[in-house]
Design goal:
One of its GO terms (cellular component) is cytosol. It is built from 4 helices and 6 strands. With 154 residues, it is of the alpha+beta class.
């Protein structure tokens, strides 16, 4: 498995969002960028906080996904509730895993926080057990911090 250059990926994310104020357009392109850049992933996208304590499916690349996830449920909900990046080597061993795609075996979820509010999560799935390293989680968290700087006032 190749090592991902997260500095370059972050630079590319900045370039494709520069000057574009529309959040959904930017999240769509970022999900496509990351999906194409990482090997061995089967889902990359966003869940957005659209109701209190509820994440709603946003822009993504991959198979059909769950529509709504409560804060605290599954890996995405855990990231939203704890406000911490979740790196799960085997989602089937995660007590409250929500199986949107039975082919997914490992996951990284980065909470997105703007003005001290969880506005969503950045979610990545892989069909391989232990696909995501600590370096992946750190690099994806840095991309998450950039995503928080986009225009969320829509």
């Amino acid at each position: 498995m190749q090592t991902t250059n997260y500095d370059l990926l972050l630079e590319q994310a900045r370039a494709i969002t520069a000057g574009e104020p529309d959040l959904i357009a930017n999240l769509s392109n970022i999900s496509a960028l990351v999906y194409d850049a990482l090997d061995d992933v089967n889902w990359v996208g966003f869940y957005l906080t659209r109701e209190p304590e509820t994440l709603v499916l946003g822009p993504f690349q991959g198979k059909v996904a769950c529509l709504r996830i409560a804060f605290g449920r599954g890996v995405c909900g855990a990231a939203a509730a704890t406000r911490e990046t979740q790196r799960i080597e085997d989602v089937h061993a995660f007590a409250d895993h929500i199986a949107c795609d039975a082919a997914s075996n490992s996951e990284v979820v980065v909470p997105l926080i703007v003005n001290n509010e969880v506005v969503g999560v950045f979610d990545l799935d892989s069909p391989s057990i232990a696909r995501f390293s600590e370096a992946d989680a750190e690099g994806l968290t840095r991309i998450g911090r950039f995503i928080e700087q986009l225009n969320w006032a829509q």
